[in-house]
Amino acid sequence: MIYNKESALIISEYLLQIKAVMLNTANPFTWTSGLRSPIYCDNRKTLSFPKIRTFIRQEFVDIINEEFGSIDVIAGVATGAIAQGALVAHELGLPFVYVRAEERKHGTGNKIEGYIESGQSVIVIEDLISTGKSSFSAVRVLAEAGCKVKGLLAIFTYNLQVAEDNNTDPDLRVFTLTDYEALIEKAVLSNYINESEQESLLDWKKDPQKWSDKFDKT
Question: Is the pTM of this model over 0.90?
Answer without folding.
Answer: yes
